[in-house]
Amino acid sequence: MTVAHRDGLALHFDCHGTTETLTLLNRHRFQASFPQVVAANGNAHDAADSPIWRRMNEFSHHGRTLPRSRFRVYRAIDLPVGEMQTGKHLPARSRESPADEYLEQAFIEKGLLLSRLIMVSNRVTLPAGVAAAGGLAVAISDVLRERSGVWFGWSGKISNRRSASPSVTTEAGVTYATVDLSEADHLAYYSSYANGTLWPLLHYRLGLIAFDHLAFDGYLKVNRNMAARLAALLQPDDVIWIHDYHLIPLGAALRDLGVSNPIGFFLHTPFPVAEVFCSLPRHEILLQAFGAYDLIGVQTPTDARSLASSMERVAVTPPGFGRRNRILPLPIGIDTANFAELARQGVRSADTSRLKSSLAGRDLIIGADRLDYSKALPNRFAAIAVLLTDWPETRSSFTYLQITPPSRSEVPEYQRLRRELESAAGRVNGKFAECDWTPIRYVNRTTPRSKLAGYLRIARVGLITPFRDGMNLVAKEFVAAQDPADPGVLVLSKFAGAAYEMNSALLVNPYDTHEIALAVRNALKMPLLERRKRWELMMDALQRNTVATWRDAFLRALTEAARPAISQPEPRVA
Ligand code: GDG
């Protein structure tokens, strides 16, 4: 038995038993956090001389992680070391519960020991920045709020001044490291390739794809440049988690620079079937790049199958260092309790009251989506016209509020969509409005998150019908925001990843405007008992799978996948 101790926190190793994973430990933080280690024979060592530290070092240097050992963490405030060793003053729970739970507590409360988490995404939302309207930014902010680390990516700024190192600021335990892009790089990497080629491809919109070899080269080049800047920031025990389609080749570029840390990737969009993906010119390069990751997370089992079958078509090389290359469906969650609370508070705000009184007793139907063709907004407006035509009794009985923050406005397809929506909303309103009522309120601005939460709570229907969506967090937020005593009804596209978990929603085919209209009519008429039953099932799923469970499951699977396949004998430490 070994006890490392520092202040009130003791770490107790018992390496004769089974189970917990020492791979989560960061050697350097261990040394800094626990200056002294006491062995079973009572001898005290400086941490750097202790057998456990040497053992960690040795395994880490060989690119291997420590084998599984049993170890426990407990808090033993002000106990003399001898008493810590016997464990007799510990609460019973700490002797019985899985060590993980205590480790987690120690990590979160004291920020000790756990490897540094490096989150990488195309765009970094700086703490002083405007609240982001985008699923990925919302999810990463949620993850980093609970677990400090580094967020690396593009600053959102375009600058032709070349800087070798990123700008770094730290706030509330999170380090933000950002790089600017030159105008040419931004055009090739972001507007042309990521959003003009990959985004439509991943959403099954082959007709919208523009492929340009130079843009693809620019995309690869920006990924290589980002890798070089990121590599310079890395420490040996860091765990790297890269997000989304902008950065598919980043892991491979890091490996080329000799980075052997665990690297995971999460794709927030859908992944299309192999026939579609492989119609992309030079797709082999991207599929090979997926091979550099220890773990690839996707939103649904369908996405996992599609990616695996595309990768099977090319002989993908695994990440090396004796690791596996795993694909795992891991649906992203939201911070359910937090969003529900935001909605409870939001409903008492002046803005929500204003909206409510403006409805004059009518039901509210709500949609909130970035202005993006994958969200199928023209079909929603058309479905409202069908509803008002085929069920005239619904006229003047509801107001449909569509909140649509602008997005990627430099990409021509998005400019066209904006014009199309403006005229579609005008057409429906022109045809059906009365002097005291218009069916559609179309807001083409970002709404603050707290306001949005309040609006979702007072809505009778959430109308979320994308053609394709990796997950769709708004669908989940709509459910979390509802009043349990009088919940609204979710009308959801069956092609959103969220439909896997939210299958008590009214699921519709987004291409069928009549089916959407009928579902909205049924939602408006649905009796309270049925609304509650459907809502409870969905809320239950949201409480089981939150953004925190998603994060933990991803990091656990990443640690597991990054562990070399060859198992080591159990160490006898001290
Ligand atoms: C990508 C994938 C996947 C929306 N309008 C406003 C606003 N929002 C917030 C929502 C939500 C987020 O933005 C949108 O998330 P979604 O998941 O619905 O959609 P994408 O932006 O396309 O996200 C998607 C997601 O990544 C996560 O993996 O689910 O499939 O495409 O949180 O509330 N926020 C504010 N004002 C708005 O007007 N503040």
Please describe what this structure looks like:
The chain has 574 residues and is α/β, with parallel strands linked by helices. It folds into three domains: 103 residues, no CATH class; 241 residues, 3-Layer(aba) Sandwich (Rossmann fold), CATH 3.40.50.2000; 208 residues, Rossmann fold, CATH 3.40.50. The protein is built from 21 helices and 19 strands. α13 crosses α18 and α15 crosses α19. It is globular and about 80 Å long. The termini are close together. The C terminus is likely disordered. The site of GDP-alpha-D-glucose has 26 residues, from α6, α17 and α18. GDP-alpha-D-glucose binds next to α6, α17 and α18.
Topology:
Layout (H helix, E strand, L loop, with lengths): L1 E5 L2 E6 L12 H7 L2 E3 L5 E3 L4 H11 L8 E6 L5 H6 L5 H5 L2 H12 L6 E7 L11 H12 L2 E10 L8 E5 L2 E8 L1 H20 L10 H19 L7 E5 L6 H7 L6 E4 L7 H4 L5 H8 L4 E4 L2 H13 L12 E4 L6 H11 L3 H10 L3 E6 L8 H14 L7 E6 L8 H21 L7 E4 L5 H10 L2 E4 L8 H9 L7 E5 L12 E3 L4 H13 L2 H17 L2 H16 L12
Parallel strand pairs: 6-7, 6-10, 7-9, 10-11, 11-12, 12-13, 14-15, 14-17, 15-16, 17-18, 18-19
Antiparallel strand pairs: 1-2, 1-3, 2-5, 3-4, 8-9
